[in-house]
Amino acid sequence: MHILLEAGGDRDINSNRYGTILNTACVSGKKYMVENVLDIIPKIAVSTVTGKYGTPFQSAVYGFQSDPKTVIAVFNLLEKNGAVASTEGGHYSTPLHAAIDLRQSLDVVIWLMESSPRSLLVSDVAGRVPLSLAILRGNRDVAKAVFEKTKSILPGSNRSDIQVFFPPDRQDLTLLHYAVISRSSEMVSSVLALFREIPDNPGDLDKLINATDVDGWTPLHWACRWSTEIVMILKDNKADTNTTTNEGWYPRQVAVLHGFENNECIKTLGDSNDESVASHQLKLPENYQRRDFGYCDVCYTYRCWVYYHCEDDYCHDFNLCFKCYKHAERVHFKGHEFCSRVPGS
Fold first, then answer.
1. CATH number, residue 255
2. Signed CA dihedral, 48, 297, 330, 138: sign only
3. What Pfam families does the record point to (predicted)?
4. What is the domain-level CATH number for residue 328?
5. Better-scored residue on pLDDT, 326 or 313
6. How do residues 89-115 score in pLDDT, each as one tens digit?
7. How many CB atoms lie within 10 A of CB 121?
8. Where are the alpha helices (DSSP H) in the chain?
9. Are residues 211 and 325 in the same domain?
10. What value does the mean pLDDT of the chain take?
11. Domain of residue 326, residue span
12. pTM (predicted TM-score)
């Protein structure tokens, strides 16, 4: 690095993907490199927001994913040099969103909540607050810590106005939708238990069970994409198996579309009054049985039959499933173009 600087290298240079040289050093996951860069850049450069990961803090969350002790040491180093953890920007919006989405340790999440409690109320590009992501990623300890910290910064809030902690995202997904999407039966049970404890609104749980998102999908429709166990939990809590989406899909049709023709997932849904559903008469898309181990970068569903890849260099590797792609302008950066791909091709 010093050789390049002596040869005329520009310490203020930015790349579209990684941003400043400080952000790049943080992404590298090497603490000594962060220290070296901090020694050569002007102090104001630590506040620059640029590149996919936006800020030094967010870049460090990404770069030091497997080393929570070191990332906290880097946080302290950045803070000492004038960087601010609450600065927004980049792919994840805040370092707290990044830490939760990338499944950093609870210690890292707590450090960021203490340093920047206001980040708990910030929505990312898809309209998700940190609590949304904590539930989506299925870590009960992190979700509990985020929930309790969010309560502490909203004076006067109590269990009877729980939705205060969970504003609707840009696909109108509820707390229960996110719990279902996490694929964690424990998370689903925890959210249901939380609503059962609401003293003044016993009807809220019934509304939550069959609440629909922007496409008319209930939590049961989402569960039919992957989890028999969660389907059964929702059924036991009076989820309606005959609700249709805006496209006219019943939950069991969603199960068929995702490869569960002969799975227990279908059997638990029972018979339907609609003959086309009972006989599984559904126009299946081409390549509907094609799937791979890649996933949608918004809902983390495994890719099946078709997915959409962002072609913008800023994103590098960002994909949407068929459902989230319908709302690409809501859940991703405006102006980015996508191309369709078939899983495994």
1. 1.25.40.20
2. negative
3. Ank_2
4. 3.30.60
5. 326
6. 999 999 999 999 999 999 999 999 999
7. 14
8. 2-6, 21-28, 31-40, 56-63, 68-80, 95-101, 106-115, 130-136, 140-152, 175-181, 185-196, 204-209, 219-223, 228-236, 251-257, 264-267, 275-278, 322-325, 328-331
9. no
10. 86
11. 293-344
12. 0.88
